Amino acid sequence: MTEVQIATPRDAYEMLLAGNQRFVTGTPEHPNQDAARRTEVAPAQSPFAVLFGCSDSRLAAEIIFDRGLGDLFVVRTAGHVMGPEVLGSIEYGVSVLGAPLVVVLGHDACGAVAATRSAVEDGTTAGGYVRDVIERVTPSVLAVRAAGRTEDQDFIAEHIRHTVDLLLDRSRVLAEAVDARRAAVVGLSYRLADGTAQLVTVRGLDDVAADLAS
Protein backbone atom coordinates (compact mmCIF):
# COMPACT_ATOMS: atom_id res chain seq x y z
CA MET A 1 0.00 0.00 0.00
CA THR A 2 1.96 2.99 -1.26
CA GLU A 3 1.06 6.54 -0.28
CA VAL A 4 2.18 9.91 -1.58
CA GLN A 5 4.89 11.71 0.32
CA ILE A 6 3.49 13.96 3.03
CA ALA A 7 4.32 17.56 2.17
CA THR A 8 3.29 19.62 5.21
CA PRO A 9 3.56 19.35 9.00
CA ARG A 10 -0.24 19.50 9.26
CA ASP A 11 -0.69 16.62 6.80
CA ALA A 12 1.81 14.52 8.73
CA TYR A 13 0.11 15.29 12.05
CA GLU A 14 -3.32 14.35 10.72
CA MET A 15 -2.00 11.13 9.19
CA LEU A 16 -0.42 10.15 12.50
CA LEU A 17 -3.62 10.81 14.46
CA ALA A 18 -5.71 8.94 11.91
CA GLY A 19 -3.49 5.91 12.35
CA ASN A 20 -3.79 6.09 16.11
CA GLN A 21 -7.57 6.29 15.83
CA ARG A 22 -7.59 3.11 13.74
CA PHE A 23 -5.45 1.40 16.36
CA VAL A 24 -7.75 2.51 19.18
CA THR A 25 -10.90 1.33 17.43
CA GLY A 26 -9.40 -1.99 16.45
CA THR A 27 -9.55 -1.32 12.70
CA PRO A 28 -5.88 -1.10 11.68
CA GLU A 29 -5.04 -1.08 7.99
CA HIS A 30 -1.38 -2.11 8.45
CA PRO A 31 -0.26 0.17 5.59
CA ASN A 32 3.14 -0.16 3.94
CA GLN A 33 3.92 -3.52 5.53
CA ASP A 34 4.01 -5.74 2.43
CA ALA A 35 6.74 -6.96 0.08
CA ALA A 36 6.01 -4.21 -2.44
CA ARG A 37 6.66 -1.52 0.16
CA ARG A 38 9.82 -3.30 1.29
CA THR A 39 11.11 -3.18 -2.28
CA GLU A 40 10.03 0.43 -2.76
CA VAL A 41 11.89 1.83 0.25
CA ALA A 42 15.01 -0.33 -0.05
CA PRO A 43 16.93 2.30 -2.10
CA ALA A 44 16.04 5.29 0.09
CA GLN A 45 13.77 6.49 2.89
CA SER A 46 11.56 9.55 3.23
CA PRO A 47 9.64 9.21 6.53
CA PHE A 48 6.83 11.66 7.17
CA ALA A 49 7.59 11.99 10.89
CA VAL A 50 10.41 11.69 13.39
CA LEU A 51 9.15 10.02 16.54
CA PHE A 52 11.17 10.59 19.71
CA GLY A 53 9.60 8.45 22.39
CA CYS A 54 10.13 6.52 25.57
CA SER A 55 11.71 3.08 25.19
CA ASP A 56 8.84 1.42 27.07
CA SER A 57 8.03 -1.91 25.40
CA ARG A 58 4.34 -0.98 25.25
CA LEU A 59 5.04 2.04 23.03
CA ALA A 60 5.80 0.40 19.67
CA ALA A 61 5.43 3.38 17.33
CA GLU A 62 4.47 1.68 14.07
CA ILE A 63 1.79 -0.36 15.89
CA ILE A 64 0.09 2.36 17.92
CA PHE A 65 0.04 4.73 14.93
CA ASP A 66 -0.80 2.01 12.40
CA ARG A 67 2.10 2.73 10.07
CA GLY A 68 4.65 0.67 8.17
CA LEU A 69 8.08 0.52 6.57
CA GLY A 70 9.62 3.88 5.76
CA ASP A 71 6.91 5.94 7.50
CA LEU A 72 8.49 6.84 10.84
CA PHE A 73 12.07 7.69 11.80
CA VAL A 74 12.08 6.43 15.38
CA VAL A 75 14.40 7.47 18.22
CA ARG A 76 13.69 6.04 21.67
CA THR A 77 15.31 6.35 25.10
CA ALA A 78 14.07 5.65 28.62
CA GLY A 79 11.94 8.60 29.67
CA HIS A 80 12.65 10.22 26.28
CA VAL A 81 15.77 11.82 27.75
CA MET A 82 18.18 13.29 25.24
CA GLY A 83 21.87 13.63 24.60
CA PRO A 84 23.93 14.59 21.54
CA GLU A 85 23.15 11.32 19.75
CA VAL A 86 19.42 11.89 20.12
CA LEU A 87 19.64 15.49 18.94
CA GLY A 88 21.76 14.46 15.97
CA SER A 89 19.32 11.70 15.05
CA ILE A 90 16.33 14.04 15.18
CA GLU A 91 18.15 16.69 13.15
CA TYR A 92 19.05 14.02 10.59
CA GLY A 93 15.41 13.04 10.26
CA VAL A 94 14.35 16.64 9.64
CA SER A 95 17.25 18.20 7.72
CA VAL A 96 18.47 15.21 5.69
CA LEU A 97 15.41 12.98 5.34
CA GLY A 98 12.98 15.89 5.13
CA ALA A 99 10.45 14.77 7.73
CA PRO A 100 8.05 17.71 8.38
CA LEU A 101 6.95 16.56 11.85
CA VAL A 102 8.74 15.70 15.10
CA VAL A 103 6.74 13.93 17.79
CA VAL A 104 7.77 13.66 21.43
CA LEU A 105 5.85 10.70 22.81
CA GLY A 106 5.47 10.15 26.53
CA HIS A 107 3.03 7.92 28.37
CA ASP A 108 1.31 7.28 31.67
CA ALA A 109 2.92 4.97 34.24
CA CYS A 110 6.37 5.88 32.92
CA GLY A 111 9.04 4.04 34.89
CA ALA A 112 11.64 6.75 34.37
CA VAL A 113 9.33 9.42 35.77
CA ALA A 114 8.29 7.19 38.68
CA ALA A 115 11.91 6.45 39.54
CA THR A 116 12.71 10.15 39.45
CA ARG A 117 9.81 10.99 41.71
CA SER A 118 11.07 8.41 44.20
CA ALA A 119 14.59 9.83 44.00
CA VAL A 120 13.33 13.36 44.65
CA GLU A 121 10.78 12.49 47.34
CA ASP A 122 12.51 9.65 49.18
CA GLY A 123 16.15 10.16 48.38
CA THR A 124 16.39 6.76 46.71
CA THR A 125 18.97 6.43 43.98
CA ALA A 126 19.87 4.09 41.16
CA GLY A 127 23.20 2.72 40.05
CA GLY A 128 25.02 2.90 36.77
CA TYR A 129 23.72 4.99 33.92
CA VAL A 130 20.14 4.71 35.17
CA ARG A 131 21.14 7.52 37.52
CA ASP A 132 21.86 9.68 34.48
CA VAL A 133 18.33 9.08 33.17
CA ILE A 134 16.90 10.11 36.54
CA GLU A 135 19.01 13.26 36.63
CA ARG A 136 17.67 14.31 33.22
CA VAL A 137 14.05 13.81 34.26
CA THR A 138 14.53 15.61 37.60
CA PRO A 139 13.86 19.18 36.30
CA SER A 140 10.40 18.12 35.13
CA VAL A 141 9.57 16.50 38.47
CA LEU A 142 10.80 19.51 40.41
CA ALA A 143 8.72 21.88 38.28
CA VAL A 144 5.52 19.95 38.96
CA ARG A 145 6.22 19.74 42.69
CA ALA A 146 6.93 23.47 42.80
CA ALA A 147 3.52 24.09 41.23
CA GLY A 148 1.85 22.02 43.93
CA ARG A 149 0.56 19.33 41.58
CA THR A 150 0.63 15.67 42.51
CA GLU A 151 -1.17 13.64 39.84
CA ASP A 152 0.79 11.22 37.64
CA GLN A 153 -0.61 12.87 34.52
CA ASP A 154 0.80 16.23 35.64
CA PHE A 155 4.32 14.82 35.86
CA ILE A 156 4.01 13.09 32.49
CA ALA A 157 2.65 16.17 30.72
CA GLU A 158 5.29 18.45 32.22
CA HIS A 159 8.09 16.12 31.17
CA ILE A 160 6.73 16.04 27.61
CA ARG A 161 6.55 19.85 27.52
CA HIS A 162 10.05 20.09 28.99
CA THR A 163 11.41 17.75 26.33
CA VAL A 164 9.82 19.74 23.50
CA ASP A 165 11.21 22.99 24.90
CA LEU A 166 14.64 21.43 25.34
CA LEU A 167 14.66 20.14 21.77
CA LEU A 168 13.96 23.57 20.34
CA ASP A 169 16.37 25.26 22.74
CA ARG A 170 19.29 22.95 21.99
CA SER A 171 18.77 22.31 18.29
CA ARG A 172 19.21 25.36 16.11
CA VAL A 173 18.48 23.21 13.07
CA LEU A 174 15.10 22.18 14.42
CA ALA A 175 14.21 25.63 15.75
CA GLU A 176 14.92 27.22 12.37
CA ALA A 177 12.84 24.60 10.57
CA VAL A 178 9.90 25.29 12.89
CA ASP A 179 10.29 29.07 12.53
CA ALA A 180 10.26 28.67 8.74
CA ARG A 181 7.19 26.41 8.97
CA ARG A 182 9.07 23.60 7.26
CA ALA A 183 8.51 21.45 10.33
CA ALA A 184 6.45 21.28 13.49
CA VAL A 185 6.97 19.65 16.88
CA VAL A 186 4.16 18.09 18.88
CA GLY A 187 4.17 16.48 22.30
CA LEU A 188 1.77 13.56 22.76
CA SER A 189 0.88 11.55 25.83
CA TYR A 190 -0.03 7.91 25.24
CA ARG A 191 -2.51 6.12 27.49
CA LEU A 192 -1.57 2.50 27.97
CA ALA A 193 -5.06 1.25 28.79
CA ASP A 194 -7.03 2.65 25.85
CA GLY A 195 -4.25 3.31 23.31
CA THR A 196 -5.04 6.97 22.68
CA ALA A 197 -2.36 9.59 22.02
CA GLN A 198 -3.43 12.92 23.53
CA LEU A 199 -1.97 16.28 22.49
CA VAL A 200 0.01 18.01 25.25
CA THR A 201 1.92 20.76 23.45
CA VAL A 202 2.67 21.93 19.92
CA ARG A 203 5.09 24.24 18.12
CA GLY A 204 4.66 25.29 14.51
CA LEU A 205 0.99 24.42 13.99
CA ASP A 206 -0.82 27.59 15.00
CA ASP A 207 -4.38 26.33 14.51
CA VAL A 208 -3.68 23.18 16.53
CA ALA A 209 -2.07 25.30 19.24
CA ALA A 210 -5.14 27.55 19.33
CA ASP A 211 -7.43 24.54 19.71
CA LEU A 212 -5.26 23.22 22.54
CA ALA A 213 -5.37 26.58 24.36
CA SER A 214 -9.16 26.95 24.06
Architecture overview:
- The chain is of the alpha/beta class.
- 49% of the residues lie in helices and 15% in strands.
- It has a domain at 9-109 and 172-209: Beta-carbonic Anhydrase, Chain A (3-Layer(aba) Sandwich).
- A five-stranded mixed beta sheet has the order 2-1-3-4-5, sandwiched between helices.
- Strand 4 (184-190) and strand 5 (197-203) form a beta hairpin.
- Helix 6 (130-146) crosses helix 7 (152-170).
Write the layout of secondary structure elements.
Elements: H1 9-25, H2 35-41, E1 49-54, H3 61-64, E2 72-77, H4 84-96, E3 101-107, H5 111-122, H6 130-146, H7 152-170, H8 172-179, E4 184-190, E5 197-203, H9 206-213
Parallel strand pairs: 1-2, 1-3, 3-4
Antiparallel strand pairs: 4-5
Helix pairs in contact: 5-6, 6-7
Instruction: Supply the number of helical segments.
Output: 9
Q: Outline, from the CA principal axes?
A: globular
Mean pLDDT: 94
CATH architecture of the domain at 9-109 and 172-209: 3-Layer(aba) Sandwich
Rg from C-alpha positions?
17 Å
In order across it, which strands form the biggest sheet?
Answer: 2-1-3-4-5
- One letter per element, helices H and strands E, the order comes to HHEHEHEHHHHEEH
Largest sheet: 5 strands, mixed
The CATH topology annotation of the domain at 9-109 and 172-209 reads as Beta-carbonic Anhydrase, Chain A
Number of strands: 5
Protein name: carbonic anhydrase
Binding site for Zn(2+): 54, 56, 107, 110
Keywords: Lyase, Metal-binding, Zinc
Function: Catalyzes the reversible hydration of carbon dioxide to form bicarbonate.
